[in-house]
Amino acid sequence: MKLSNATLSALPSSIKVPGYDRSRLTPGIVHIGLGNFHRAHQAWYLHRLMEMGLAQDWAIIGAGVRAFDEAQRLKLKAQDYLTTLIELDPSGKSAEVTGSMIDYVPIVEGNGPLIEQMADPAIRIVALTVTEGGYYIDPATKGFAVDHPDIVHDAANPETPRTAFGAIVAALKLRRDRGVGPFTGLCCDNLQGNGHILHQTVVSLARLSDPALAAWIDEHCTFPNSMVDCIVPATGPKELALVQALGIDDAAPVTHENFRQWVIEDNFCAGRPDWDRAGATFSDQVHDFEVMKIRILNGGHQVISDVGEVLGVETISGCMEHPKIRALFRKVELEEIVPHVKPVPGYTPGDYVKLIDRRFSNTAIVDTTRRVAFDGSSRHPGFIVPSIRDGLKAGTPVEGLALVSAAWARYCLGVREDGSVVEPNDPFWADLTEVAVAAKVNPRAWLEMRTLYGDLADQPRFADAFAKWLSLIHARGMEAAIDAYLAA
């Protein structure tokens, strides 16, 4: 059955469908970056509120700024912006159709339609999931990447911007000039202090072309920090076959685990939905929640994914079934990451490691090591390096984190131990591969990428361990290095 408003009542009775009248929904949110994660996470929370008869004036309008976003827009438009969510768990699966999204802005060069949509007074929140590396952060200073070609373009052409942030600035200018008022910018990407980062990007870009506008945004707009969590694999042939087997013709289904978490700073300048009634948490402890999640879950993904890729293990659950990789995960987490993580309401760090162990081990979730290993040049500095620095400062072990870093260097050679080729898997793959080749002879060459590692090349306790592990990996293989670490 082709998914659409007209066919909802004809879908199999086992499939939950929206119980609210979608024709009565009105928009309140523009969300830029309509990937699987957003539809399984933020859109789901809003859908839940709508099922309670709430938030009917907060429906989502999707958006993108790149040419490839148009294909996703057309897929979703053809099915009235409905999405089939399939929850996968070893005990079984369930499915529901969500309807909190009601439109998707056409993708046009210069982003005129997006700017006008965000300038609409009905829009009170503009949210984003554009990946960790999408915020134009200078890797050396962690400040705004003012010299990036996209930013140079948007500063010179503020009315026809290339980036999502340029479009946001242009829309806020219209709102100010029309007396509409500000909106909240809500980052939903895995970045520590993600609201602060979004604020930095938007205000810094505005300042390049219109300092007075930048001051207005700084004074009137809000950018709450948030922490998001749900494992959501990419959609491929298996997922498409799975939704077909359920009796639904959905061109863009989403599979996900049976766990979600959303912790949000309650700082919204133009109102918000009551997401807490659907299970989200409003808290002034977002930083502690995000440190726990970023260090233990996202860091844990990096602990196992590069190793798994080098050894030819295709999925995250497969990594957890591999006795040596799982032992590596547990030892690094408990001895080198957990000591630097505070407890939060509901979780001790040790309890959270057990939860992540179970979630990573979910064999029903086909989450590939390749997906998790993508963009290591953003993820290692964001998820692994902070634990290294804490360990060096506190005098706690960093040997395992050095091994994890060495595994990434080995992965970036672009060849697995079985001889198969790793297709480029990072925005800077060619540069990383060049340095990885040099590091076979001189391991410290890898740490000399100071935009990623800062001064860690000058920290003997870490640098010596890294050199030892990378040399051992090249001489005897990944499993031998893991064995040596576990035996220490």
UniProtKB/TrEMBL annotation:
All copies of domain Mannitol dehydrogenase C-terminal, residue ranges: 286-469
Q: Which domain of life is it from?
A: Bacteria
The reply on keyword Oxidoreductase is: yes
MF (Gene Ontology): mannitol 2-dehydrogenase activity
Protein source organism? Allorhizobium borbori
The enzyme's E.C. designation: 1.1.1.67
Q: What PANTHER family does this protein map onto?
A: MANNITOL DEHYDROGENASE 2-RELATED, MANNITOL DEHYDROGENASE DSF1-RELATED
Name this polypeptide is given: Mannitol 2-dehydrogenase
Give yes or no: UniProt keyword Transferase. no
Tell me the keywords, alphabetical order.
Oxidoreductase
Q: Locate the Mannitol dehydrogenase N-terminal domain: which residues?
A: 28-276
